Amino acid sequence: MVIKTILDTDLYKFTTSYAYIKLFPNAVGTFSFKDRDETEYTEGFLNALKSEIHNLSLVALQKEELEHMFKHCRFLPRVYWEWLSSFRFDPEKIEVYLDKDHHLHMEVTDYMYKVTLYEVPLLAIISEIKNQFFNCIPDKEVILNRLSGKVALSNEHHMPFSEFGTRRRFSFDVQETVVAYLKEHANYCTGTSNCHLAMKYHMLPMGTHPHEWFMFHGAQFGYKHANYMALENWVNVYDGDLGTALSDTYTSDSFLSNFSRKQAKLFDGVRCDSGDEIEFIDRLILRYKELGIDPTTKTIIFSNALDFDKALHIFEYCKGKIRCSFGIGTNLTNDTGFKPSNIVMKLSRCKMNVNQEWRECVKLSDDMGKHMGSNAEVEACLYELRLKE
Predict the structure, then answer these.
(1) What is the pTM of this model?
(2) Which of 40, 43, 263, 276 is the most buried (most CB within 10 A)?
(3) Do 204 and 190 contact (CB within 8 A), yes or no?
(4) pLDDT band at residue 337, thresholds of 50, 70 and 90?
């Protein structure tokens, strides 16, 4: 059984779920799986995946977990955790199959406050059982040797980072090995996004909001207003808590042009998840200065496929200009010598209630080739944002 507790997921899944409950309780959405490597899977793999999907339905929030999360997440009320204790994953909501080329297809449809909870555990399951079927056997000594060098680099340069690797981890055991080592040896590890491991190892659970929050707003309210409205609504729910704004759902150009003085002052900083980090630092600092805000009081969280050498280069560039930290995922939890899975699940469509027509969701990355959505809708989004003539 890969997922043994509902807390074996990222914190932002719970914060986003609660935001949907508060503001959009009748909204419905579909998450769709994409394997960027176009892996060819077997029928045996598919059967194992279906078995793990069934096992998901057995997972439930336990009383001691409820009490721990309520105590350590002051921004989420007890009523949310009490609702979560009654929630069960429903295998009937998950459509999964292999096409004629043996590529995996998977979709989940439900109310937004429920369907958002499926993404991370399903990706973690796929990654783990894929490694089992491809006979990838990790060497713990190799993992710890690689990890020790990274931790030494962080300790030497006082470079803060957190572990963000649940969704594309090699396995739960590998992620736990990494987190246990970080807890013991990493002086500047600020926490982990995994709520179960944060609870077990007495670490801070880390995270704010995902691209899907902005994608939902773009589909429902228009792409020009998506960034502004998504941040305003986040503030309406969390009143200043969880104050890191994601900058690249519709390109950082669009984000920075809509980043108001009120939001720039209220949010602690922003997260950069694609594009050229050095260029983004300069542009964000310029925007803060235009708004009359001292950039050295703000923080950028970098989370775009980072390794520690790249993080150190960015860290040195930020010194004296703006604060920074790093959310490092695959390079921590899937650096085993085997090629990590390049898989995602994204919100592909949504509607405000069951009577509304479906609206497609898109994401425009600052990295070429990572736009998500149909060609027609991506083109429409680019045109509306005046990113393309």
Answers:
(1) 0.97
(2) 263
(3) yes
(4) very high
Residue 389 has pLDDT above 70, yes or no: no
pLDDT for the residue numbered 37: 93
In SS3 terms, the chain reads as CCCCCCCCCEHHHHHHHHHHHHHCCCCEEEEEEEECCCCCCCHHHHHHHHHHHHHHCCCCCCHHHHHHHHHHCCCCCHHHHHHHCCCCCCHHHEEEEECCCCCEEEEEEEEHHHHHHHHHHHHHHHHHHHHHHCCCCCCHHHHHHHHHHHHHHHHHHCCCEEECCCCCCCCHHHHHHHHHHHHHHCCCEEEECEHHHHHHCCCCECCCCCHHHHHHHHHHHCHHHHHHHHHHHHHHHHCCCCCEEECCCECHHHHHHHCCHHHHHHCCEEEECCCCHHHHHHHHHHHHHHCCCCHHHCEEEECCCCCHHHHHHHHHHHCCCCEEEEEECHHHHCCCCCCCCCEEEEEEEEECCCCCCCEECCEECCCCCCCECCHHHHHHHHHHCCCCC
For 132-170, the pLDDT digits (tens) are 999 999 999 999 999 999 999 999 999 999 999 999 999
**And the tokens for 75?**
């921004």
* Per-residue confidence band for 319, with pLDDT thresholds at 50, 70 and 90: very high
